[in-house]
Amino acid sequence: MIKKFVRKWVSSMLLRLYKKMEEIAEADLPRFASNPRNLKIELPRRIYDAQLIDIGNDVSIGPGSLLVPQRIYPSHVMSNPEIKHDVQKFNPKIVIGNRVTSTGSLTIAAMQEVTIEDDVMIASNVLIADGMHGFENANEPYKYQKMWKISPIVIKRGCWIGQNVVIMPGVTVGELSIIGANSVVTKSVPDRCIAIGAPARIVKQWDEAAQRWSSLA
User: Fold this and answer.
1) What single-letter DSSP state applies at residue 189?
2) Which residue of 19, 69, 119, 124 is surrounded by the most CB atoms within 10 Å?
């Protein structure tokens, strides 16, 4: 009887704590470029320059997210006071559409523009970055080298991005396409395709006439 009471009490307290954390997370959201309704970005989270992030309505992003419109590089964190850095300046933008969902640990870094259209589903631990750290000089730490290969990313309506996926600069993921877990997407994927692997390759495409997936392997 006592054990049952303790379990019930603990469950009740945990539920109250979770609800309180949700309230804090909602109340502490920064001011974005848009004025989204029913926005949920769970704690912990890191959001920089929110005024450069446009978010739609009914968006839900799980804990551990990092949203970075990168205006300058290197930032204070990535610089070395003993080295004279050539500072790069950018005009970045992140656009997240309506009803986008992410399980958690989502990283979006934009030096130009990252666009995620409506109704995209993103699993956990996904990296979407429209630029890369330079590695032209193997005598200098890579974190101090210039960002390069900067090119916009677009994830079109209704896509499903699997767990541990990396989406590289310049990639467009076509409408209603699927990127399988653990894939590294280095080239654009057409509409209604399934791509897997590192680098990702297209293995299936939707056959509109037959109304089924057709294998390309």
Assistant:
1) B
2) 69
Q: Return d(Cα 77, Cα 117) in angstroms, integer.
A: 31
Tokens at 12, concatenated: 């009740």
Task: Give the pTM.
Answer: 0.88
CA pseudo-torsion sign 127, 133, 138, 140 = negative
How many C-beta atoms lie closer than 10 Å to residue 147's C-beta? 19
Paired tokens of 141: 């730490």
pLDDT, averaged across the chain:
91
| Cα distance between residue 95 and residue 101, in whole Å | 14
Bridge-partner residues for 110, per DSSP? 69
Indicate the SS3 state at residue 37.
coil
Q: Lowest mean pLDDT: which of 7-11, 126-130, 144-148?
A: 7-11
Q: Taking Cα atoms as reference points, which of 26, 24, 52, 27 lies closest to residue 41?
A: 26
Three-state DSSP state, 113: strand
How many residues does the structure list for the chain?
217
Helix, strand, coil share (%) of the chain residues, nearest 5: 15, 35, 50
Hey, how many other C-beta atoms are within 10 angstroms of the C-beta on 144? 17
Cα–chain-centroid distance for residue 167? 9
